[in-house]
Amino acid sequence: MGIDVWERRDPAARPDAAPAIDPAAPVSGLDREKSVIDAGGVARGSEHARRVAAMNWEDLARTVRTCTRCPLHETRTQAVFGVGNREAEWLVIGEAPGAEEDRQGEPFVGRAGQLLNSMLLAIGLRREQVYIANILKCRPPNNRDPKPEEETACRDYLERQIRLIRPKIILAVGRIAAQNLMKVDTPIGKMRGRTYSYQDTGIPVVITYHPAYLLRSPLEKRKAWQDLLYAKRVFAGHA
Ligand code: URA
Fold first, then answer.
1. Residue 23 falls within a domain, yes or no?
2. How far is the centre of ligand 1, averaged over its atoms, from the C-alpha of 219 (Å)?
3. According to the model, what pLDDT value does residue 93 have?
4. pLDDT tens digits, residue range 144-178?
5. Is residue 179 part of a domain?
6. Does 184 map to a domain?
7. pLDDT score at 14
8. What is the pLDDT, as a whole number, of residue 3?
9. Contact status, residue 170 vs residue 203, Cβ threshold 8 Å
């Protein structure tokens, strides 16, 4: 991730430096439970939602691989289900597969994926230790932003993955993942440094920038480093 350099250059990026927390934040620390934002979405209560909510890993993976609920299935090479330790303590959620992910069938395997791996290693996590999934399982053409109806069509799958894994923390990378997961339209800059909670599970959700954005804006890596340290503290129960 190249963060060793950031540590030396900027005292604010030291491991003991707290991330900027807006006192007006709706959530954080002891107020966490008040922050629960229902991310149930439109599909909640639908027949599809009920079926998916009862699936085991194998049924879920097969259903995703053969899904035709939105037009993205017409342009995908393959659906990208998710990868990693199904008993992971850390769940990383991104936006949607890109070209390389669509080709290989695995999330975060392109350049952004390499940076994500480095970000995780920087806080002592190997890629194989965590679980990595996306909001959308199929690649939007030309990597355009997901459409609301695509997010709705895909939502039950990620919800089921979260409930099967029961991670101790969710790290949402990027605006799309953060806003979609928490059902808000808050700018990502305002979501950083706060602890959200996933639905009724009490699983803390911490937000950071998307690695693809960090590749384009390397100066923002320092903030991402602060976010990762914050996430580690939340994970340890110290934030
Ligand atoms: N960007 C994402 O959000 N997810 C991927 O899997 C790859 C790139």
1. no
2. 21
3. 99
4. 999 999 999 999 999 999 999 999 999 999 999 99
5. yes
6. yes
7. 35
8. 53
9. yes
Whether 74 contacts 141, CB under 8 Å: no
**Helical H runs in the chain?**
3-9, 47-53, 57-65, 72-75, 99-104, 111-122, 148-165, 175-182, 188-191, 211-216, 221-235
The pLDDT tens digits of the residues spanning 101-133 come to 999 999 999 999 999 999 999 999 999 999 999
DSSP 30: G
The stretch 22-42 carries a mean pLDDT of: 34
Q: Is the predicted pLDDT of residue 11 greater than 90, yes or no?
A: no
Residue 108 Cα to ligand 1 middle (Å): 5
Q: Ligand 1 site: residues with CB under 6 angstroms?
A: 94-98, 101, 107-108, 112, 134, 212
Supply the range of the domain harboring residue 225.
29-36+44-238
Q: Say if CB 211 and CB 120 are below 8 A apart.
A: no
> Going by CA atoms, what residue is nearest to atom 7 of ligand 1?
108
Mutate-to-test residue for ligand 1 from 72, 95, 213, highest number of ligand atoms within 8 A of CB: 95
Q: Measured in angstroms, how far is the CA atom of residue 214 from the centroid of ligand 1?
A: 13
Distance between Cα 34 and ligand 1 center (Å): 30
Which residue has its alpha carbon closest to ligand 1 atom 6? 107
Closest CA to 195 of 172, 164, 212: 172
| Structural domain count, the chain | 1
Describe the chain by its helix, strand, coil percentages, rounded to 5. 50, 10, 40
CATH number at residue 90: 3.40.470.10
4 occurs within a structural domain? no
Q: Mean pLDDT, to the nearest integer, of 75-83? A: 98
